[in-house]
Design goal:
Blueprint lengths: L2 H9 L8 H9 L4 E4 L6 H11 L3 E5 L3 H13 L4 E4 L5 H12 L5 E4 L7 H9 L2 E6 L18 H7 L6 E6 L4 H11 L5 E4 L7 E6 L4 H11 L4 E5 L3 H13 L4 E4 L5 H12 L5 E4 L12 E6 L6 H8 L9 E6 L3 H11 L6 H5 L1 H20 L4 H8 L12 H4 L1 E6 L1 H14 L5 H9 L4 H6 L15 H14 L2 E3 L7 E3 L3 H6 L5 E6 L2 H5 L18 H21 L3 H4 L2 H10 L4 H4 L7 H19 L11 H4 L7 H13 L8 E2 H5 L6 E3 H11 L10 H10 L3 E6 L2 E6 L1 H6 L1 E7 L5 E8 H11 E2 L2
Parallel strand pairs: 1-6, 1-7, 2-4, 2-5, 3-4, 5-6, 8-13, 9-11, 9-12, 10-11, 12-13, 18-24
Antiparallel strand pairs: 14-17, 15-16, 19-23, 20-21, 22-23
Helix pairs in contact: 1-3, 2-3, 5-6, 13-15, 19-21, 24-26, 24-28, 32-33
């Protein structure tokens, strides 16, 4: 059977997703393979398809029992015979599984890395034909990965002990360049096919919120998302217990999971979550790596994680089915202190790692500071994540909280110079708290102990509170005027650009978020207004059918003893609602319906659809059917729905002016973008249309390829391209309130006419 036939027969898809076929082909050529693909991109298909085509057995090394069970259950549902071998089985069950594998009954066997050292498994491996060893969650093999497992090092000696070296394939979702090189080196991959398909998860909306009360935020958020399944991550067991108790008191069916609970309770709670009996899980990072639940609609971090790797892997558990989902991080300065304590008291179990303890601790501290910068940046959050993993990105993604906010700029040159003088006077011997306290003129015991009142800078910024001073300091760190040492003390020192500010008469301008009209009137938990769903393509009748099919799926899942998403995903149900299949041929056209699943469930779903529609092919969706599900994705329609959903958040229309209003525009020699936005708003019908902002105009300018905002030596800088110069954009010097100079873009009369024409709607 060819790879395309296998893909359709067992997995229900007619085409491979981006990158999958490259990895499948490299394995079939007998080449070692490393795939670094985002969560939800279909990594498992990359080794499962060739495993069914290779002559022998594929051994998949997986870190968690729950992950193995989930994968084997999905394969069995698809009609593929697979098994797992781990501590949850009796010795007799393990023996039987290995016997069946040698006889050819199982093509794929999942094992825990610890199992590779046992006599029984080594004996099995010596007598079986092993065509491929696949390492799942391969970042666990690197001590610089966030989930380093010493047991993964056993893989190397296991492979060396086999009579014939098999193909080695490895897969992970999160790997920096250092971790990628570690995987290749430690596993001894020979001339591997390496594919990094990109880290971007376009269906995820990223948000950093700083609510006055995290508890209130969570209760409000879940109240607005009652029908959704989600995970709330906490840094400590204590917080898990507290948050779960708060939710239970609010009548939210929530489960909890942390290492302090007994195995039976943990497993019971995990199943409650997977089977949607309790759709919200509150957990420490001990939970999740083995969870393949496709319909997780949100992941909220109650505390800041210790690294970007941890954050992106945990946040990536949202939206595995491709639906729009939200990743919200609730930040407070206390999170940094908690994580620093956890790093300092980290238990090192591996003897080899103890020798490198200081190096590892310094590395952890560096990653923590990079995570903290993510929480503080005012630039695109998606861009920050992608750049961290070495991927170039646009300055704005338009699908994160920072891109959705409007910012105003304020000159803080004088304050920045005062901070630089303070750090210079302190000779870089203190952290951000001491620097901020000194400038504020605070009189805490610790500050008195350091005798900070003797510094000339003491009280120099007493009109600011300490949080405001820290905010300025963090912006200066981001701009390179200051730096923080990469150790647990995190001392503030002068940065590489400090001299530019003091000697070159350059200005330091800070961005401040401007609360939108909806944020002013909404609750603190304003996150979540941007989500659309693939089920949004369905009209009223379509949604009724969708709910009916979901009930049928739940009924079948209970009968089969499997999670509902293993029967069919939401995405597959939505396509059934649009397709209205009345026979086998029509049902097999639905993405996600393979032969085995059709034989098991197809008739029941067809009967349900036939009964609902009375055998009439009615239209159950908006728009054109051919556009909705092109390449099994709902992309172009989803984009239009997102625009439509955002319009619903206000009764006013998106900004526009009519031709008569356009004639009244007050042209000048040149405008700044904020001035241009004000002038356009003034001539508009303010009761009918939303206010136009400078950020709106600049987004249009970027989209036209006229200008952009880029990073040069770690600093933000606006640039004008050739098309922008032709359009009438010019770079000019701007004088701040503090009489310092900095560059900004000006819009000449020609540019003004183009902008006015863009916003003018025909009468």
């Amino acid at each position: 059977m060819q790879k395309q036939e296998i893909l359709k027969k067992y997995f229900g898809y007619t085409n491979f997703r981006e990158g999958q076929e490259i990895l499948v082909d490299s394995i079939l050529r007998g080449q070692d393979t490393l795939g670094i693909m985002p969560t939800g991109a279909g990594k498992s298909v990359c080794y499962q398809v060739p495993a069914l085509m290779l002559s022998g057995i594929t051994v998949v090394i997986s870190p968690l029992i729950s992950l193995m069970k989930d994968q084997v259950s999905s394969l069995n549902q698809a009609g593929i015979h697979a098994a797992y071998i781990n501590s949850s089985l009796t010795e007799n069950q393990i023996k039987k599984a290995m016997e069946y594998a040698i006889k050819g009954q199982y093509k794929i066997i999942y094992v825990a890395p610890e199992r590779l050292e046992t006599y029984e498994f080594i004996n099995f491996a010596q007598n079986a034909e092993i065509s491929m060893v696949t390492v799942d969650e391969a970042h666990c093999i690197s001590q610089w990965g966030q989930d380093f497992r010493p047991s993964y090092l056993k893989i190397v000696s296991f492979v060396k002990g086999l009579r014939k070296r098999p193909i080695i394939s490895a897969f992970t979702a999160t790997a920096t360049e250092q971790v990628k090189e570690d995987i290749i080196c430690v596993l001894g991959l020979s001339n591997p096919q390496v594919l990094v398909s990109g880290f971007d998860r376009k269906n995820l909306y990223f948000s950093v919120e700083k609510p006055k009360s995290k508890d209130r935020f969570i209760v409000d958020y879940i109240e607005k998302h009652k029908d959704d399944s989600g995970i709330i991550y906490c840094a400590t067991r204590k917080n898990v217990e507290k948050v779960c108790e708060i939710l239970e008191k609010s009548n939210v069916p929530a489960a909890k999971y942390h290492a302090g609970m007994d195995n039976h309770t943990r497993n019971e709670n995990q199943e409650d979550f997977i089977y949607d009996r309790k759709p919200v899980m509150v957990a420490t990072n001990a939970f999740g790596m083995g969870i393949d639940k496709s319909n997780v609609r949100f992941v909220i971090h109650y505390n800041m994680p210790q690294s970007m790797e941890n954050y992106y892997q945990e946040a990536g558990r949202a939206g595995r089915d491709g639906e729009d989902s939200e990743c919200i991080l609730l930040y407070s300065g206390q999170d940094l202190i908690i994580n620093r304590f956890l790093i300092e008291n980290k238990e090192i179990k591996n003897e080899d790692m103890r020798d490198n303890y200081k190096i590892i601790q310094t590395h952890d501290e560096m990653r923590l500071q990079q995570m903290n910068r993510y929480c503080l940046t005012k630039d695109c959050l998606r861009g920050y994540i992608l750049q961290y993993f070495g991927e170039h990105s646009k300055i704005r993604c338009e699908n994160c909280s920072n891109c959705q906010r409007e910012y105003k700029e304020e000159d803080k040159t004088e304050e920045a110079l005062q901070i630089i003088e303070c750090v210079r006077e302190m000779r870089g011997r203190y952290g951000i708290n001491v620097v901020a306290g000194t400038l504020n003129g605070a009189s805490r015991a610790k500050l008195r102990e350091y005798h900070v009142e003797k510094f000339n800078a003491y009280g120099a910024m007493k009109s600011y509170n300490e949080d405001e001073i820290k905010q300025i300091i963090n912006e200066m760190i981001e701009a390179g005027y200051l730096m923080v040492t990469q150790d647990k003390y995190a001392l503030v020192k002068l940065g590489v650009h400090a001299q530019d500010l003091t000697e070159k008469n350059t200005g330091f301008v800070m961005k401040y978020a401007v609360a939108s009209e909806t944020e002013k009137t909404d609750t603190e938990s304003g996150a979540g207004k941007h989500r659309t769903r693939k089920s949004d393509v369905l009209n009223g009748r379509g949604l009724e059918l969708f709910e009916q099919l979901r009930r049928l799926r739940t009924e079948i899942a209970k009968e089969e003893g499997v999670p509902p998403y293993i029967v069919f995903s939401d995405k597959t149900l939505v396509e059934m609602c649009a397709e209205i299949p009345f026979n086998r041929e029509e049902m097999m056209r639905v993405a996600g319906v393979g032969e085995n699943k059709f034989n098991k469930y197809g008739k029941r779903f067809i009967d349900e659809i036939f009964s609902f529609t009375n055998g009439i092919k009615e239209k159950t969706y908006f728009g054109e059917r051919a556009v909705l599900f092109a390449d099994n994705e709902i992309s172009s329609y989803q984009s239009s729905m997102k625009r439509k959903t955002r319009r619903k958040s206000s009764e006013k229309s998106p900004f526009f002016i009519n031709s008569q209003q356009a004639e009244a525009f007050p042209y000048k020699e040149r405008y700044l973008v904020t001035e241009l936005a004000v002038a356009l708003t003034e001539i508009s019908d303010k009761e009918a249309v939303k206010k136009l902002t400078g950020a709106d105009i600049f987004r249009y300018v970027i989209g036209e390829g006229w200008a952009d905002e880029i990073y040069i030596e770690g600093r933000r800088k606006k640039v004008i391209y050739e098309m922008g110069k032709t359009a009438g954009l010019v770079m000019g010097i701007r004088i701040s309130k503090k009489e310092t100079e900095y560059e900004d873009i000006y819009y000449t009369e020609h540019a003004q006419k183009l902008i006015v024409a863009h916003y003018t709607r025909a009468d």
